[in-house]
Amino acid sequence: MNQFARSGGALVSQLKTLGVTNDSVLNAMSEVPRHFFIESVLAHKAYENTALPIGQGQTISQPYIVGKMTQLLVEHNVETNVLEIGTGSGYQAAILGKVFDKVFSVERIRNLQLNAKRKLQQLDIYNVQMKHGDGWQGWESKAPFDAIIVTAAPNEVPPALKQQLKDGGILILPVGERVQHLVKIVRNGDTFVETILEPAKFVPLVAGATI
Ligand code: SAH
Fold first, then answer.
1. Using a 6 Å cutoff on CB, does residue 43 contact ligand 1?
2. In CATH terms, is domain 50-200 a member of 3.40.30.10?
3. Tens digits of per-residue pLDDT, 190-202?
4. What positions constitute the catalytic site (predicted)?
5. Is 61 an annotated catalytic residue?
6. Confidence (pTM)
7. Is ligand 1 within 6 A of the CB of residue 51?
């Protein structure tokens, strides 16, 4: 067993103690090599339960929150048509691609988007479509979605994301600036039922032009 496989196993055990217990989520997290999404100088930290820098002031999310957000969708019986806002390294998108049939992901920084796209191709993950764009607007031409997750924090829920949810669909996102909470929103016709879940710490969801 190589060093990464061993630490990957330890990470999965740690995630279980933190409440990420769903088998399909844990299998995906065992299969997708997180070190592959991180620069080689930081790869030795890939299986620690922490966010890490990926350049351009952005981070790959903490494994716990990746597992938790994915599990929330599984618990809502989501199977396909998942939109992620904030592709970043592509790691969360890869996990979503293993768990759900069809995934879409939007990133505003072109270099990160291109890099993430290449990584998923190298891992033979072909059910994730990615685009360079502003996630505040969602991905109108692919809507409606069964689920949307946002991996950067807006200070208010972007209205387009609510509108692009299917009836019965689920939106999971961190909301806030210095103080953030993970929020779950379920669409019931024109009603949106919000539940505040737990404290969170994400980079900001930037409004405005893409770069
Ligand atoms: N899911 C990522 C985490 C990336 S961090 C991963 O697994 O690595 C959040 C990402 O959101 C950053 O890459 C940032 O550039 C992106 N982002 C911020 N504002 C955005 C916006 N308005 N639209 C799309 N992406 C945005």
1. no
2. no
3. 999 999 999 999 9
4. 61
5. yes
6. 0.96
7. no
